[in-house]
Design a protein that fits this description.
The complex is a heterotetramer.
Chain A (H helix, E strand, L loop, with lengths): L1 H12 L7 H17 L3 H22 L3 H8 L2 H7 L4 H30 L4 H28 L7 H27 L5 H30 L1
Chain C lengths: L1 E9 L2 E10 L5 E5 L6 H8 L7 E5 L5 E4 L11 H11 L6 H6 L15 H15 L3 E5 L7 H16 L3 E5 L9 E4 L20
Parallel strand pairs in C: 3-7, 3-8, 5-6, 6-7
Antiparallel strand pairs in C: 1-2, 1-4
Helix pairs in contact in C: 2-4, 4-5
Chain D lengths: L7 H43 L1
């Protein structure tokens, strides 16, 4: 298990591993927002929490098709199936590695991008908290989507089509936390909802992902 | 004799040939009587004017949009547990029907909403939920088309339907939390009797709902038959090629 | 390991039926048969990567090390890192024997992506040594190996067999190891056989 | 034709679009069904000839 985590982290950090791509995408999308809606501070302030959440979500989505496809290509996915690791655990670990290399950098970068988008001062903490709580859910749900489409040639677009609707609850609760927080309202209710959702998803989705992966590779 | 015998594709084909004429005829009668009665034989609403006539399309379509997904969920479970091919193919057959029903509900809703609420579209929880349902239908259908091996496709789409159902309920809840909307409550609380629709509107509406249900059934039975024939064709071809 | 009355399908169509054989410790068994006979399908089935239509496989669970056309190598990891990863996955730590057995020590710190096809194959076969599993299931293990490398593989295989391991292989060349030959074309499934194939319900 | 008042366009377009969608669905379903039926008959005939 630990070996798998270390391998995936190491692979992500080496050249061609795609580390930082999500982050760069997040930065670029956020930068494009003022270009598309205009530079007025009041407008940016109002939409900042939502834009940052959407940007983080898309950046996460972008890297999903590498999650299992690379391992399928070089045959290591099949070898992992014959290894004495429970597949559920292996997929959970791979999702964790994905979160550490994609989700976590997004969480840490969000406050800086928040400054650029005039996010209100109290909003930063809530944004950080909501992203920290929500992005793990994005990674495991994405793992399910990746497992679902692993055997499909050019499944990248399909993966997005399948995963995006599944991201809706996370996005709603997560962005609601950031929105309420930056407006100075009480954000504890959506934060609890988000936490509950993430916990449930992290606990259950690896099983669903392993089930569909077994079906897809059979 | 158990009901499960019709889980055999060939037996199902034989049965479907027998019930289909009746189903289509009943569906045609109920849909046309419901819609014609509704369109020609009911008065305008005091407040909504003639737009109330849209209800005979909007409500039955919305009802079937949800029921179709529910039927797909049950069929997916039957496939995953008992591995009856007819069940998986029926779920596949129902999805496009559900998609069209959702589309009708959305479009008629938008056309109705324009004069009543002054806008084609509002991010009202109910409208939003139907839009989400529409996305789920799209994803489900796309997955069926993308997977080459038919049994694998059935497996994967079944799990997607299951997981999707959970997320659809979560989304519904999240959307309600996110925006309390302007859509009126359900018009027909069947169980309680104190309905918000007057009798003149109610009877044609019930006919239309039964009609849409029958139409859905007829379409699904027919489409399931089509899917079975396609699988049978492929199975026979595979064997002929092997024998050659 | 014992296989009895096994039927397997490729793409939903039965290709082999009634396959039965036993593989004792210290024994090697070579599968022969023309292209498309079902060698790969049978091996995948025994490795647990696909379910058989009928029949039993006994004594293979968690004892099989499988190697097929793809070596499961990460091109951005070094030879040593690739090997230690698989060693750890299978609960081992020692990769020295595997490095030596396939003459990989000079290459140990090269990235796997920079290796030649034959070197990659050697690394893929070295992976078998670090799994510590007694039954090797190998699909065309000598593809892209030169004569020297085949000899390395032969001696590794011999060592594995003398240590009480066993091997089931699909290969066309003589490895210099005593091996029983099983011609699987005799088990070809009859054209009209159903055997619970996925599409049989539609006939 | 009933008097639809000022909402005639809305009501008629709602009915028009819905019936069109339903007709398209039924039409495509029947078209695909016919094709599948024909293909199966062909294969069955061929299989029958081969015995």
């Amino acid at each position: 298990m630990k070996a798998l985590l270390l391998r995936d982290l190491r692979l992500a950090l080496r050249a061609g591993g795609g580390f930082g791509l999500g982050l760069a995408f997040f930065l670029t999308v956020t930068m494009l927002v003022p270009f598309s809606v205009g530079p007025e501070a009041t407008l940016l302030k109002a939409i900042a929490p939502g834009v940052l959440w959407l940007g983080a979500l898309l950046a996460c989505l972008l890297s999903l098709d590498r999650l299992l496809a690379l391992d399928l290509e070089d045959g290591s996915l099949e070898l992992l199936l014959t290894a004495p690791l429970p597949l559920e655990g292996a997929l959970a670990i791979k999702a964790l590695a994905h979160w550490l290399t994609t989700g976590l950098p997004l969480v840490l970068a969000a406050p800086f991008l928040g400054v650029m988008l005039q996010l209100a001062a109290p909003g930063h903490l809530w944004l950080l908290a909501s992203l920290a709580l929500g992005t793990p859910a994005l990674s495991v749900i994405g793992m399910f989507g990746a497992a679902l489409t692993v055997g499909i040639k050019r499944g990248g677009l399909l993966l997005s089509l399948l995963v995006l609707p599944l991201y809706i609850p996370t996005l709603i609760f997560g962005a609601e936390v950031a929105r309420r927080g930056s407006a100075g309202l009480d954000a504890s209710t959506p934060l609890l909802m988000l936490a509950g959702l993430t916990l449930a998803v992290v606990a259950l989705m690896p099983f669903a992902a392993a089930a569909v992966l077994r079906m897809g590779l059979r | 004799m158990s009901l499960w015998q019709y889980a055999n594709p060939v037996k199902f084909l034989a049965l479907s040939e027998r019930v289909q004429p009746v189903l289509w005829a009943l569906a045609a009668v109920f849909v046309s009587v419901g819609l014609l009665w509704g369109f020609f034989g009911t008065p305008d609403d005091a407040r909504q004017g003639s737009t109330v006539k849209i209800i005979y399309l909007h409500v039955p379509a919305a009802l079937m949009a949800i029921n179709a997904w529910f039927m797909m969920l049950v069929a997916s479970l039957i496939w995953l547990i008992r591995r009856h091919h007819v069940s998986a193919l029926a779920a596949k057959a129902a999805a496009p029907v559900g998609l069209v029903m959702t589309l009708i509900a959305l479009v008629t809703g938008a056309i109705w909403g324009q004069p009543m609420w002054g806008t084609w579209w509002a991010w009202d929880p109910r409208l939003t939920s139907f839009l989400i349902l529409f996305l789920f239908y799209l994803g489900y259908i796309a997955l069926w088309q993308a997977v080459e091996d038919p049994d694998t496709a059935a497996d994967l789409t079944s799990v997607l339907c299951l997981v999707g159902s959970v997320f659809a309920v979560l989304s519904r809840y999240a959307v309600q939390f996110w925006n309390q909307g302007l859509h009126q409550g359900t018009s027909i609380p069947v169980a309680t009797g104190n309905r918000s629709v007057a009798d003149v509107f109610f009877y044609p509406l019930v006919l239309a709902m039964i009609g849409f249900g029958l139409l859905f059934l007829a379409l699904v039975v027919y489409r399931t038959g089509t899917e079975i024939r396609l699988r049978r064709t492929a199975a026979l071809r595979a064997r002929m090629n092997r024998g050659a | 390991m014992k296989v009895s009355d096994l039927s397997v399908a490729r793409g939903g169509v039965p290709v082999l039926s009634g396959v039965s054989f036993a593989l004792e410790a210290g024994e090697a068994l070579v599968l022969r048969g023309p292209n498309g006979a079902g060698k790969t399908t049978l091996l995948r089935c025994i490795a647990g990567l696909q379910a058989p239509l009928t029949g039993q496989i006994e004594g293979a669970e968690d004892r099989v090390a499988y190697a097929a056309h793809a070596d499961g190598l990460k091109s951005m990891l070094t030879v040593r890192e690739n090997l230690s990863f698989w060693a750890q996955v299978f609960g081992n730590v020692n990769i020295a024997q595997a490095l030596d057995g396939y003459a990989l020590r000079p290459l140990a710190d090269r990235l796997a992506g920079t290796l030649s096809a034959g070197q990659k194959r050697r690394l893929g076969l070295a992976r078998l040594l670090v799994t510590g599993r007694p039954i090797w299931v190998l699909d065309e293990p000598t593809v892209s190996l030169d004569a020297d490398a085949v000899a390395l593989f032969g001696s590794a295989l011999l060592g594995h067999l003398t240590a009480g391991g066993s091997a089931l292989m699909a290969t066309h060349i003589d490895l210099g190891v005593d091996a029983r030959v099983l011609d699987i074309s005799t088990y070809r499934a009859a054209p009209d056989a159903d055997l619970g194939a996925s599409d049989a319900a539609f006939l | 034709m009933p008097e639809l008042g000022k909402y005639a366009a809305e009501v008629l377009s709602a009915y028009g679009v819905s019936l069109l969608l339903l007709a398209a669905l039924v039409g495509l379903t029947l078209l695909r069904g016919r094709a599948a039926r024909r293909a199966l008959e062909e294969v069955e005939a061929e299989a029958g000839r081969r015995g």
